[in-house]
Each structure stands twice: as structure tokens, then as C-alpha cells.
TrEMBL record, chain A:
Domain of life, per lineage: Bacteria
Signal peptide: 1-37
Listed name of the protein: DUF4136 domain-containing protein
Presence of keyword Signal: yes
Keywords: Signal
From TrEMBL, chain B:
Lineage top rank: taxon: Bacteria
Cleaved signal peptide residues: 1-24
Alphabetized UniProt keyword annotations: Signal
Origin species: Gammaproteobacteria bacterium LSUCC0057
UniProt-recorded name of the protein: Lipoprotein
Length: 210, 219
């Protein structure tokens, strides 16, 4: 039986520690960014349009967890549901938020169903720009009171960080996501009158007003 | 021997430090000779332009100008507080870029009422960025069993160019423009430990622009 001198034992321990540290560092470099959007939009300065509508936020929308690439996952469900509810509540005189497709609508009522179609993330290493960028692509489906699809409107939203200086990847994507969700409010207010089916419905609501 | 080197070291250090000074030029333009007056109950806000694709006017710079302009007489509404109060009309996508767009926006009675609630008289747009040129020189750092260190010399130029445009929300006109251009060179000397000698171009630009705006409103 041989006995190793204490220095050799120490060297072996150092080698294992170095190996473990390297493995941890490599794991840290390769780990994915998991972001949960927590954006809370400020109250919108806008006058509500006449009319009654249902905003249908289904389970897929409420619990959306997007994976724009292999290293990034963004839990958008709660923040985007709150953002759409808040903006449409500010824009329409009567709005009810529902989780399930309604059986029927009241006469003249509109059903609005937003859907998250695509999420893209770009990092400085991909674009050679000094910013992180996030794009969302939503579609808004409008149904009449017979639950017939009137129109589907595609709406992009965009957000970026001011720069990437001293920002961790996940914090940068979180900030860009926050800006993109704020952009949803701006885009909805601009687009509201550009959607032909919605403009027609608003015209009918104004005509029916006493 | 060491006494002979002490003054020489001091001179070299003084030369290096003096080389780190930035050259700052402030230009101003006023649309009229009338003073820019602000009543005690009125406020102003300073906003950064964020609609460009490749740069954004950074918030820290806007905050820095705000802190230079604010005084007992001049009240400044913080940028984010203003943008939230008027959401979403000053988000990058929809913020007015021209006076014509501002007049269209203020035609909306809700928006005009919100600005009146804030007693907002002036809006100052700040647009610009700080850019660094590619570094020249050579600096290398190495770590070995006996220790480590950096050796060499690197330098790079930085330039801050910003413009502030003052809009009068009551008269719905432009009242003036101030442009600041600050340039300087920063150095990194590797003498075992890396010694950075940074030129404060951005803070000089802030001091130049903020000081000029403060004089405008303090008249």
C-alpha cells in the first residue's frame, strides 16, 4: 500500500476545483435567458368610442410563453393580457374581458380576439448594432354579433434598449420587451381608425347614438 | 536619485491629465430677441429623441441636463413622469417630430387639458449621442503562475454631439436651439496595472448644454 504525499492530494483537489469552476463558467455562458414581462402601462389619455365589445383573451394568450430562439424564453401572458385589457378599456365605452369564446353576442356587439403570432429577439452579436431589439407580431380578429369573422388585422410592436453597455442579456431583453409592450398601446391607438371593419362598426355605433 | 525623478513624474502626470481635457463648443440660435420667460407656476420638461434606428438619446444625459436646468424658479417635470402622464402620445412611435405635428396633437382637447393640468409651458427636445472612435495603440494583458499585468498604450477619441430645441407649448412655436459639440481623447496606459485616463466628453457636453439652457430660462 502506497501513501501519497499531502501536496499531491492538494494538487488533485485544486485540479478538481478548477474543473468544476470551468464547468460552471461554461454552463453560465450557455444558459438561457428566462424573462417574465412585468410591464404595467400607464393610463391612456384617450376618449372612449361609443359601442360595446367583448375582448376575448383565451388561455393561449393569457399564458403565452414565447421562445424566440434556443436561448431565450419570454413569459408574456400576464403582461400582454393586462396591456390589451387596459388599452381597449380606455378606447371603448363598454368593454368586457372574457376567457372563453362567447355563445352569442348582444346586437351590435363586437368580439375582439388578439393573438400573439410571432416574437423575435435580436442581440448585438447578431446585428452588430449596439442595442437589443424585440419584435412582437399580433393579429387582431374582429367578429360581428353573429360571430362571423369581419377582419383580421396584423399589428407589429417594437422595442429596443438604449444601448447594451453593462447590461446582462436577460435584463436587456426585459427592457426591450417593456418598450415593445408600451409600443402596443401607441400602435393600437394609431391603428384603431385604419382597420376597415372597425371603422365601419364605429360608424354604425355613432349612427345609433341618440 | 528619487528626488530627481519626482518632479519629472509630476510633470509627465500633469501633461497626461491635461491631455484628457475635452474641447467643448456651444452654439445657440434664438428665433427672436424676446426673453424666454417662465412663470412661477409653470413647468418645463426635457425629453430625449428615441425614434432613430441606430442610436437613442440616453436617459442619463437627459436627466443630467434636467438637474442643471432645475432651480427654485425653474421647475422641471422628470422625463418618464411626463411620458407616463401623457401616454401613449410621446412614445417613440408617435411623439411629434415637428411643430406641425405638435399643433395637430394639441388639437386633441384631452391632451391639451392634460398638459394644462401639468402647467407645462416649455418642452425641450434633446437629440444626439456620444460616439467612440476605434482605439489605436496596443495594450496586452497576461496572467501567469507568478502574477499578471498589462503593458502598452491605447487611445481613442470620443465625441458628444447634442442639440436641444425649445418648443413653447402656449404659443406653439420654436423659441430657440442650442447645439453642443464636445470632443476629447481618452488613454489607457498599461504599467502592470491598467491606468485609465478618461476624458469626460459627455459630462462636459451636459454642463455646456445644461448651463446654456439654465441661462435661457433664468433671464
Amino acid at each position: 500500500m502506497t501513501c501519497q504525499p499531502p501536496t499531491r492530494k492538494r494538487n488533485a483537489a485544486h485540479r478538481y476545483a478548477a474543473l468544476l469552476l470551468s464547468a460552471l463558467l461554461l454552463y453560465g455562458c450557455a444558459s438561457s435567458s428566462q424573462i417574465t414581462a412585468t410591464t404595467v402601462l400607464p393610463p391612456a389619455v384617450t376618449a372612449p368610442h361609443p359601442g360595446s365589445a367583448l375582448l376575448w383573451l383565451d388561455e393561449e394568450f393569457r399564458s403565452a410563453n414565447s421562445r424566440p430562439n434556443a436561448h431565450t424564453s419570454i413569459a408574456l401572458g400576464a403582461a400582454q393580457s393586462a396591456a390589451f385589457s387596459q388599452i381597449f378599456t380606455a378606447m371603448l365605452a363598454e368593454l368586457t374581458v372574457v376567457a372563453e369564446r362567447p355563445e352569442q353576442l348582444a346586437p351590435g356587439q363586437l368580439l375582439i380576439r388578439p393573438r400573439l403570432r410571432e416574437v423575435q429577439v435580436a442581440a448585438p452579436s447578431e446585428t452588430y448594432l449596439n442595442v437589443y431589439e424585440v419584435w412582437f407580431k399580433y393579429s387582431l380578429q374582429f367578429y360581428d354579433d353573429q360571430l362571423q369573422l369581419l377582419d383580421e388585422w396584423f399589428m407589429p410592436a417594437y422595442g429596443k434598449t438604449p444601448d447594451n453597455f453593462m447590461l446582462a442579456r436577460s435584463s436587456a431583453i426585459e427592457r426591450a420587451t417593456d418598450t415593445a409592450l408600451r409600443d402596443v398601446g401607441a400602435k393600437l391607438l394609431i391603428d384603431f381608425h385604419r382597420i376597415p371593419a372597425l371603422e365601419q362598426w364605429l360608424y354604425q355605433q355613432r349612427e345609433q347614438q341618440p | 536619485m528619487s528626488a530627481r525623478y519626482t518632479p519629472l513624474t509630476a510633470v509627465v502626470l500633469a501633461l497626461l491629465l491635461s491631455a484628457c481635457g475635452a474641447i467643448t463648443t456651444v452654439d445657440e440660435y434664438r428665433s427672436s430677441d424676446n426673453p424666454i420667460s417662465i412663470a412661477d407656476d409653470e413647468q418645463l420638461t426635457i425629453l430625449g429623441r428615441r425614434d432613430s434606428g441606430h442610436y437613442e438619446t440616453d436617459r442619463e444625459f437627459v436627466d443630467c441636463i434636467g438637474s442643471k436646468v432645475a432651480s427654485a424658479k425653474v421647475k422641471v417635470v422628470p422625463e418618464q413622469a411626463f411620458i407616463d402622464a401623457i401616454y401613449p402620445w410621446f412614445e417613440p412611435r408617435v411623439a411629434p417630430k415637428t411643430l406641425g405635428a405638435l399643433r395637430n396633437l394639441l388639437a386633441n382637447p384631452l391632451i391639451e387639458a392634460r398638459l394644462n393640468e401639468l402647467n407645462l409651458r416649455y418642452l425641450v427636445w434633446v437629440d444626439g449621442s456620444t460616439e467612440s472612435a476605434t482605439a489605436s495603440g496596443s495594450l496586452s494583458c497576461a496572467v501567469g503562475p507568478g502574477g499578471g499585468g498589462c503593458f502598452g498604450f491605447a487611445q481613442w477619441d470620443k465625441s458628444s454631439i447634442y442639440e436641444a430645441i425649445i418648443w413653447d407649448l402656449r404659443q406653439r412655436t420654436e423659441r430657440g436651439r442650442v447645439r453642443v459639440d464636445s470632443q476629447g481623447t481618452s488613454y489607457l496606459i498599461g504599467a502592470v496595472a491598467p491606468i485609465p485616463l478618461l476624458t469626460p466628453v459627455k459630462s462636459d457636453a451636459c454642463a455646456g448644454l445644461g448651463g446654456q439652457l439654465r441661462d435661457y430660462f433664468a433671464e
